[in-house]
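Quick one, tokens below. Sequence please?
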């Protein structure tokens, strides 16, 4: 093959920006051009494609119907860790304690590689026990990270934020060929399921959720996309359910259906 041109022409960059926006709602800024080059160049080399225009045609003209999903996997950001923004999990424990006898359903709507889901599971197990009736759905637009989350198997280097007590209680230390890794305990894995979902698409009718976590993803959306995503999520939230967003995010101007009960924690309806 011809050597890959390192420079991404402006025309092709704009085409990829538009494609990502249509497919995912993610608004890639001009400042992300270097990131796009870095992530796409390795994919082009894998395919033996020598220029970005040819790759754009490859993605959009259906030569491989799965390539759009691979592009999304490559260009979406999945920075996460256990107990990120810990105050939310302190609130979750308090909330769950007040509903100890109820069947609880939670959704991590941008779960990335799963650390958020497993943190939620550890909190609920600690608060209610693993025999209680609670379940968590984890979803993400990236099939690659959803598969990693489903496996619940991590390198020891991924323990950032995970208290030693929680690790000892809910994680299985790898031995032999698995040394240097850990696996989330089966008692937690039995309470969770994972799906690839696009938040721009209206979700199918599901049993509604008590709590939805949508954290640190709206920062990648413009106002129009944010409103669409929130509208879609609220169709899946119980009448007095809660929506939790990231500490740098807000629902101001996006919906009149939710009332803040704490910063970044919102309840449907008018009661705190």
């Amino acid at each position: 093959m011809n050597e890959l041109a390192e420079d991404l022409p402006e025309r092709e960059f704009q085409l990829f920006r538009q494609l990502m926006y249509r497919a995912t709602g993610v608004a890639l800024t001009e400042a992300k051009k270097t990131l796009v080059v870095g992530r796409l160049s390795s994919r082009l080399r894998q395919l033996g494609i020598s220029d970005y225009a040819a790759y754009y045609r490859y993605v959009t003209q259906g030569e491989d119907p799965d390539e759009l999903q691979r592009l999304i996997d490559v260009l979406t950001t999945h920075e996460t860790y256990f107990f990120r923004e810990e105050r939310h999990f302190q609130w979750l424990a308090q909330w769950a304690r007040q509903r100890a006898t109820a069947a609880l359903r939670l959704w991590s709507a941008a779960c990335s590689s799963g650390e958020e889901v497993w943190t939620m599971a550890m909190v609920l197990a600690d608060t209610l026990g693993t025999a209680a009736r609670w379940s968590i759905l984890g979803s993400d637009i990236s099939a690659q990270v959803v598969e990693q989350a489903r496996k619940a198997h991590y390198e020891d280097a991924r323990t950032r934020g995970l208290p030693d007590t929680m690790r000892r209680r809910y994680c299985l230390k790898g031995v032999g060929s698995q040394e240097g890794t850990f696996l989330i305990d089966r008692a937690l894995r039995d309470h969770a399921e994972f799906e690839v979902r696009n938040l721009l698409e209206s979700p199918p009718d599901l049993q509604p959720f008590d709590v939805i976590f949508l954290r640190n993803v709206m920062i990648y959306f413009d106002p129009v996309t944010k409103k669409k995503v929130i509208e879609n999520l609220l169709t899946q939230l119980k009448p007095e359910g809660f929506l939790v967003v990231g500490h740098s995010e807000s629902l101001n101007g996006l919906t009149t259906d939710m009332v803040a009960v704490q910063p970044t924690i919102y309840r449907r309806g008018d009661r705190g």
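The CA atoms of residues 93 and 126 lie 8 Å apart. The first strand starts at residue 104 and ends at 108.
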